[in-house]
Amino acid sequence: MKLAQRYLVDFVSLLFPELCAACRESLVANEHLLCTDCRYNLPLTNFHLQADNIVARQFWGKIPLEGAYALYYFTKGGKIQNLIHQFKYKGSKQIGNLLGAIAGEQLVTNNAFKNVDVIIPVPLHKKRMQQRGYNQSACFAEGLSDKLNIPVEENNLVRTIATETQTHRSRFARFENMQEVFIIINPERLINKHVLLVDDIVTTGSTLEACGTQLLKIEGLKLSIATIAYAE
Description:
Blueprint lengths: L2 H13 L20 H6 L12 H5 L8 E8 L4 H11 L3 H15 L10 E4 L4 H7 L3 H13 L8 E3 L11 H8 L3 E3 L9 E9 L3 H10 L6 E10 L1
Parallel strand pairs: 1-6, 2-5, 5-6
Antiparallel strand pairs: 3-4
Helix pairs in contact: 4-5, 5-7, 8-9
């Protein structure tokens, strides 16, 4: 970059500084999306080191899983909430790709995820997709795909019903609300495959359970799940 261009970029940065998606502090040179402090100090779960982690235990007795994982702990008002808000509602698709890459670096040597054949993001209903313009889970899946060298299949698992927000529902109400919401268009493509199902946040797990229940009807299918965050 020429010196004059460098000065122009620096001047624009002073007027309109790029902010860290997690802490909202100004980024400095060579920082992108996340500041150095957040990149190294966000609340990692390290669930990839523990087979019977909290996420895995949430699905015991519900759906059989080869592996279960979340990258970060989510707390209300915390940096991960800021990060996901920027990602989901402010059009920052690149955040999803970055977080997928960070997660992929942890999972690439994990035995439970070694034999995954395909990554499937939890789908949005077409109306929500039109409003938002992208599926945040698919962005996360793309980052994972780049690191794990595993293809993403977006249009096979489909959401047929636009459910209302789940935030204030009980676990049972969430589960009831998710029944018959998802269908699989071409199940034959997934016969005897190991599927990694991905979403942004796991709370009660009702959405992932509903998707997983449909996927596990397919002959020989094995299932793992991965999310950006686990809500404590």
